[in-house]
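Re: weekly structure request thread

Next one in the queue (347 aa):
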Amino acid sequence: MSELRKDPVTGRWVIIASERENRPGVTLPNFADTPPPGPCPFCEGNESQTPPEVLAFRDRNSQRNQKGWWVRVIPNKFPAMKIEGPTLKVGEGMYDMMSGIGAHEVVIEDPRHDMRMSDMPVKQIEEIFWAYRERMLDLHRDLRFRYVMIFKNHGSRSGATLDHSHSQIIALPIIPKQVQEELDGARNYYAYKERCVFCDIIHQEESDNLRIVSSNEWFIGFHPYASRFPYETWILPRQHESFFSDIQINEVADLARLIKEALQRFKKILKDPAYNFVIHTAPCTEEDSPHYHWHVELIPRLTRIAGFEWGTGFYINSISPEVATKRILGLEENGVEPEERVRTSVG
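Done, posted below.
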């Protein structure tokens, strides 16, 4: 059983999950750069090698935990959190500890081993996001959970231990410190200006027209003004929405298009780097709020976090978001003006 331990200085919670040391493809002290031996458990036909599915989009004539699916969600075989049991909080002297109650699931994004999200049809990416939505809605019903995190690690440098395209969902009994800081910042901005900070960011980016990489009717993608990493990309819904799980049919199609565009640019311009993406959404316990705006962050892993970053919390970004935008759109050499760029990137 995993457990959560609270840092008494910063208030940050840490998950102690010793079982995850036994994951395939993990060696100490580094992740392996080669896939683990043996057949891939995520490939179609190897369903018996995984825990039973909790959700699958499959052919109506197929059977559960058999071939015939195109997106499949399973419990993680080596979970950081386990769903069984009560949430226990205890004190150990000055220290605080909680039982590691939660959920940890894997979204297998395609039956084919060599299919990457950047190369998938837009319709397949839509299906993946529908799976995210269904699982988030279901996990929100469990009153023990306060936050649901959806994220993807692509490539060993990002933390992935299996090569088959997949993403993960973790439901937590607490709100992570970094998420709480973002919520507090958004709430403070709203208390001062009576406007959503993320809505204001969208308006500012469209006014500046220096960092937008793609946009359509429902979403805008851009390199944030204070980018922590080179080519860091945010995708925000144009309409104010607090919960990713409230996404609608027409929005999913537009989101899938922008995700594919961003990942194709990573592959073509940045030479197919490892990357992470995370969906930031309001906590399960919050009502729809005027101050928080869900969004997606994509981080290509082109640099490493070193001692200065760990010691200070500052990030050193060697490429400004304005320069990154020109390079990722191929505008640095041909001198396309911003007005022309917007016309070609919308839609």
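The chain is about 25% helix and 20% strand. The radius of gyration is 21 Å.
Next request, please.
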